[in-house]
Amino acid sequence: MERSWLLAPVESGPAAGLGIYLHVPFCVHRCGYCDFATWDDADGLIARYVTAMHASIARGAELVDRPVTSVFVGGGTPTRLAPAELAGLVAAVRARHDIAADAEITVECNPDDASDELFAALRDVGVTRVSIGAQSFQPELLAFLERTHGPEGPVRAVELARAAAIEHVSLDLLYGTPGETDDGWVDSLDRAVATGVDHLSAYALTIHDNTPFGRRVHDGQMLPPDPDVQRQRFDIARQRLATSGFHAYELSNWATGQPARSRHNLLYWRHGDYLAHGVGAHGHLDGRRWWHHRSIPRFCEAIESGDDAVAGRESLDDQERALERLMLGLRLADGIAATDLPLIEQKRLEQAIEADLVAFDGARLRATDHGWFLLDEVVHVLTGGG
Fold it and tell me: pTM of this prediction?
């Protein structure tokens, strides 16, 4: 029974479903804070990359024989592809896999790329959800973040997606950007809600060393985000969105109801399985993880030669999987089902409860409001440091 949380979970691991992630790395401009695998098309790589992705999808289908419950096309900027190219990748997944009748299929969209043609093509190939990168509705912050759209861009994109009968529409926001004010953050939240979306993601701005922003912080040309301010903005978001009909179901995500939650991301947080295609993409099956080359030429050369373009692999032991189950699952407001919990010493559980980090009712373990923003500490207390 010690491994029942791995072998017979109720909603985690294999019970969470099977996802497929497609990475489209192309961008018109790489924003200063971005550390994803992104490229421009100066070398005419798009057509070659799309061909390689079709081959990768075909080979990946041989790894699993289970219904696919979610597909997510992310980037980069997937909508840098022509609508027919982007829809063609989704169609390739449909052709190669058993897609569940109620599968969620999400595509990330840049507001600048929104058009009737784009959303019609996505709708016709079965896309059920689009995630639009707004980041902010404050012009000065959009300029600081090096976004190429203005405040009205996301509004128009949402309108076009709704007009095309895309079932679910989400907006992404960033908070804690240097120069942001409380009033500006509230205004961005209110304007996002006013678009009529049924899902919002709000992430604290993170500065990575290998980005232009990271180098500016290192050189003293830019102040790093203040974590105390970011915590205040997080609390503002929770309070403001709660009064607008949005429910926080994960640390950075709000939805107007159960159907609007991102099922693909829920699969990640529930420690599920997912295939991955594209540069820098990570996959996971039953404790085995792999990741692809971050170079487009290297990725394409590998696929073209019959290889799988995998840059590295690792197999996680039970302790590592237990840490992941806790760290990921406690991000969810619903927490982790007791049947899916790795073994926790009673003394450590009591310590976490006494420190107001978690709550346990016998059926589910959840992070408290206090613990939700301190997940590293929560997991450290529960595991004794891992």
Answer: 0.94
